[in-house]
Amino acid sequence: MEKQKQKPNNNGPKMNMPRFNMNWIYFIAILSLGLLYFSSGGPENSSMSRNTTYSNFKTLVNKGYASKIVVNKPQSMLKMYVKPEHIRDVFHQSAQQTGNEPYLEVEFGSIDQVEEFINKAKEDKVFTGEYSFDNKRDSEFFTNILYNFMPILLIVGLWIFFMRRMGGGGGGMGGGGVFSVGKSKAKMYEKGGDLGITFKDVAGQAGAKQEIQEIVDFLKNPQKYTDLGGKIPKGALLVGPPGTGKTLLAKAVAGEAGVPFFSMSGSDFVEMFVGVGASRVRDLFNQAKTKSPCIIFIDEIDAVGRARSKNPAMGGNDERENTLNALLTEMDGFGTNSGIIILAATNRADMLDSALLRAGRFDRQIHVDLPDLNERKEVFKVHLKPVKIDESVDIDFLARQTPGFSGADIANVCNEAALIAARHNSPMVGKQDFLDAVDRIIGGLEKKTKVMTQAEKRSIAIHEAGHATISWFTEFANPLVKVSIVPRGQALGAAWYLPEERVLQTKEAMLDEMCSLLGGRAAEELFIGQISTGAMNDLERTTKQAYGMVAFAGMSDKLRNLCYYNNAEYQFQKPYSETTAKLIDEEVMRMIDEQYERAKQILSEHKEGHAQLAQLLLDREVIFAEDVERIFGKRPWTSRAEELLEAQMRADAERMAEERAKELENLEAKKDGDTNESDDAEKSV
């Protein structure tokens, strides 16, 4: 019978062995070499040694300074050890500094002459010490090798260490070392639904979601389109300002489709090694083909997709262009990438290469713009879900208070309002907390401790009152909400408006806005007699707007219907002559001067009301639209935004009156209850 093989017993206690790590070998080797490098290896290591000439050696021996002489024939060197009482005479240092047995190293020519000299010294009794021979070969041979090759060994060791780190190998050998540098760094989700994001999480952007919905439908039901001869779109480019939700929209597409999702940034293709970017592009598409159908999302694609230069450097190698060429080939080259959809996001589409934007690579460009009024309401509803708000918060009013805000800005407003309410120990987040949050984000943090003289404070009040007065008496200016002279951020004062969102801007509306901007400088000149640097931001905005009206919108009298806007990236020459440039400058100056004189005229007509407004600002630091209306009367022009603002103010006043009436009723009821209790007590007595 064959003997049965005994199976090893695996039931014993398992020992947790330490994980092998190559870094320890590197560390021990470098440490050992360093110790050998900095050690001399001899017993004389603690004593001082110096080189001297043979004639000086003979002089010192004749003086009786030598205690011992050791001759090394193979090296033609000898060592003369100095007596302790003569150490200072030879080395000019104490015995504590030189060590117990300092010696002099002497190179000689003939051993016979050395022996003859030492024998004569012994006969003359000037040398009575020990005389011996050391026939060992060079004992410092290994040390000399270290001195020569130690720097090279250190450099090679450090190079290997950093290359393993950079290659993703970590401490062990499992990461592939430097050879893994060409692998794709894309993060893969086996199912897009693992992200937990769908179109329900993307508020607003109805147009963008409608355009991208076809991609989701095709991935879910491709038969519906292929039966009609349609082909799956190869790519979609999400274009829009920062914070509008491009990345969120791409994740929602993956969540809705439920297919594998590869996510990476454009900068992940860029590396210090030549050819790595192109290698990572090829590796990414090879991985995607094995998971087809799938989605590849490249965020900030402008990092690799920027337009290629028309004048490349002679003999140079542009790694970014090589990466872009590889991406163009993989997206629509000779190979087929069936079932792979590429989504990309950027906020600088004008800088992308035209070959990348053509149909067949990115079949459609989806514009993800800043949300309008209704979309901002939806975004507020999403971000207000986890926030505890009270009845005073009106989402419609908040949406109108945040024109030009992106989705990220609105999320920041909600978070900042919650922080402000918590700072005030409030149980709920109220309307004023949101208004303070908007002010904080737009203007910056209040600086109530900023030291200003009374003259400076008066100048700021007159300046801000000038803005408020002009905006009140110009038809197309944005309705005023409040004016403040409390320093905030870099501004010493500010005026808040409730702008109407217009699709088109008329010339009259833009001129009214310019006049309102110049109202602060005009008020300083009229009512103070001197101007200051406080109007610098107003003048900058006015100048840019005037140049835009003249050079781009064709709104000047002498340059009618002309637009000199040029979107070329590398354009160093103006698209107009020097004569036209001079004419543009003259038109801009004329336009600004006219609005400045108009602002001074309006202020002169209402100087008494302006003075009251400035004094009210000095007294209270912050005034609201109802205070301006109390001084100037009802605004001659009423817009839809003002009607909503007035309705909101009336609603707030009615709510406060109702709350006050309820408080009075509660107080009266409490008094009646106390009276009844006292009557009952008297009856019982």
Structural class: alpha/beta
Q: Please, what is the average pLDDT? A: 77
**Low-pLDDT ranges:** 1-17, 40-45, 167-179
Strand content: 5-15%
In DSSP terms (H or I, runs of 4 or more residues), the helix count works out at 25
Oligomer: single chain
Main sheet? 6 strands, mixed
Please give the alpha-carbon distance between the first and last residues.
Answer: 115 Å
Q: Please give the share of residues in helix.
A: 40-55%
Order of strands, widest sheet? 6-8-9-10-7-11
Shape: elongated
Round the Cα radius of gyration to an integer and report it: 43 Å
- Count of extended strands: 14
Write the layout of secondary structure elements.
Layout (H helix, E strand, L loop, with lengths): L21 H17 L10 E4 L1 H9 L3 E7 L4 E6 L4 H5 L3 H4 L4 E5 L3 H13 L6 E4 L7 H26 L20 E3 L16 H15 L2 H4 L8 E5 L6 H12 L3 E5 L10 H15 L3 E6 L2 H4 L13 H14 L7 E7 L7 H4 L6 E4 L5 H11 L11 H7 L5 H17 L7 H13 L10 H19 L7 E5 L9 E4 L9 H11 L1 H9 L8 H17 L25 H28 L1 H14 L1 E3 H8 L7 H45 L1
Parallel strand pairs: 1-4, 2-5, 7-10, 7-11, 8-9, 9-10
Antiparallel strand pairs: 2-3, 3-4, 6-8, 12-13, 12-14
Short description:
The chain is an alpha/beta fold and 685 residues long. It has 25 helices and 14 strands. Helices cover 50% and strands 10% of the residues.
